[in-house]
Amino acid sequence: MSNVSVPSRCADEFAAEQFAAIRARLLSVAHRILGNHAEAEDIVQDAWLRWQAYDRSRVLNPTAFLVTTTARLALNAAQSARARHESCVGHWTLEPVDPHGDPALGAERSDLVERGLHLLLERLAPVERAAFVLRQAFEYPYSRIAAILGITEANTRQLVSRAGKRLSAMERLRTVSAAERHALIDAFVGAACGGDAARLESLLTIHVVVAECRPLHEVQAA
Asked: What is the pTM of this model?
């Protein structure tokens, strides 16, 4: 004989009916937040499991409860995914690029490369960005970077170290235009996959020169 009482079984069936009645709405909520149908399905399934285990006698408005629960689960999943992506990007910025290795490294503006370069544009001053990219992504000797930027080797080492700390601090210094981002991506991929380092060097140093020539109040506002 089943240990589940008739009232309990009826309550579970009623709960399932309540959930099924708004399942499409819950899926829509999760999909709008995550932008992925499969992930949204997982979130709705998680919401269902929580609905089953929850003390439903305490719920005055099942629809509001389920929508809120689904939205919270989806937001948590989205934030976790962004955190993992940030960590992955941070790892990428420290990995040297081998232009003779896997041609997919540039990955035709892969999401990883785009996001990584976007963060460099957001968080680093032009001279820090130039030193960091040339050293960490392309393993330029400090002496060569110093010559390109017209600074001392000691200053170059300081810039690379400071750039790494700025990236770890997760502080955005400025907004980045699409044109600026695409220009750096094109130059970076050209250097990584096609060996066109001169174009990347030129772009990075131009940014440094422009920044040095701007009035102080404009630099601070950027």
From this structure: 0.49
